[in-house]
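Input.
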Amino acid sequence: MNPNPYINEDLQALAETVRRFADEKIKPGFLERDKTREFDLALLREMGELGFICPEVPEAFGGLGMGCVAAGVIHEEIARADLSFSYLN
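Output.
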């Protein structure tokens, strides 16, 4: 049982999906990006394709219409791997 009343099963599943992505794709390059200060545009595109950037934008405007809590869940999971990269969503 999740102690957070704002996180339902769908948001929990989203968090798990984003966490796997972050662990597999973002975390491994964290130290190198931090050291070189180079921006990984390919990684940003992949996040966008998965809907991890601005998920709260309404579907009528090309977004997912998921709401601000979903955006926060995504931000939090990305931040576990790389705080700086999490601000891109």
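The chain has a mean pLDDT of 89.
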